[in-house]
């Protein structure tokens, strides 16, 4: 596997950003894990808005310990799907996004150690998948993968780890709809004490 210069995406993060007018709570209510994708390309302006949503996400001490790898090469997508424990559906999407986190050597919460970057990268990744839903694109948060295999496949440095992966594309056979049963608020909320 030879070295290659990665494709650089330049995005003017200024007033040229076009805003998509979609109700936030509708986006949250109807974001689904999509497991079937059309091969249709994603327009550049749509992709840039989604990536911008991740870029502006908050992080502890504004460290922004993330890097997002956009995988577009068909053969590489297939190999990545294998590294995701043979979840072959992810290779159907025109893009697979691999969210990586830099070890920040900060002991957040007095117990997380180097892995405290998981919180920050997950916040940015959530921004990304909600922005994708607002644009009519599907995602599926992939947490089942071989970190070592993905790192080797994509040339990810030793002090960086894969946090999450998602296919990104237009849904083929699924609609955006409200989720199945969820626990009631009374089960997940308490006041003043656990």
Layout of helices and strands:
Blueprint: H1 24-30, H2 44-55, E1 66-71, H3 74-83, E2 95-102, H4 117-134, E3 138-139, H5 147-154, E4 160-169, H6 185-188
Antiparallel strand pairs: 1-2, 2-4, 3-4
Helix pairs in contact: 1-4, 2-4, 3-5
Name the helix and strand elements from N-terminus to C-terminus, one letter apiece. HHEHEHEHEH
Helix content: 25-40%
Taken from the alpha-carbon principal axes, the silhouette is: globular
Corresponding CATH architecture of the domain at 51-170: 3-Layer(aba) Sandwich
Lateral strand order in the biggest sheet: 1-2-4-3
Would you state the CATH class of the domain at 51-170?
Answer: Alpha Beta
Work out the number of β strands: 4
Helix/strand-derived category reads alpha+beta
Number of distinct helices: 6
Largest sheet: 4 strands, antiparallel
CATH superfamily of the domain at 51-170: NADH Oxidase
Q: Strand percentage, roughly?
A: 5-15%
Mean of all residue-level pLDDT scores: 89
Radius of gyration: 17 Å
The CATH topology annotation of the domain at 51-170 reads as NADH Oxidase
């Amino acid at each position: 596997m030879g070295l290659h210069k990665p494709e650089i995406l330049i995005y003017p993060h200024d007033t040229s950003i076009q805003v998509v007018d979609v109700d936030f709570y509708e986006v949250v209510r109807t974001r689904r894990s999509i497991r079937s994708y059309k091969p249709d390309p994603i327009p550049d302006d749509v992709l840039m808005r989604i990536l911008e949503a991740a870029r502006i996400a908050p992080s502890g001490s504004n460290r922004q310990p993330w890097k997002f790898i956009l995988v577009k090469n068909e053969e590489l997508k297939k190999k990545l799907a294998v590294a995701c424990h043979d979840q072959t559906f992810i290779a159907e999407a025109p893009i697979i996004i691999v969210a990586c986190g830099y070890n920040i050597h900060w002991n957040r919460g007095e117990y997380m150690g180097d892995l405290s970057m998981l919180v920050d990268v997950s916040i940015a990744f959530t921004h990304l998948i909600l922005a994708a839903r607002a644009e009519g694109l599907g995602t599926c948060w992939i947490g089942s993968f071989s970190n070592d295999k993905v790192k080797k496949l994509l040339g990810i440095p030793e002090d960086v780890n894969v946090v999450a992966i998602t296919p990104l594309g237009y849904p083929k056979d699924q609609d955006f709809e409200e989720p199945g049963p969820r626990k009631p608020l009374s089960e997940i909320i308490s006041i003043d004490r656990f």
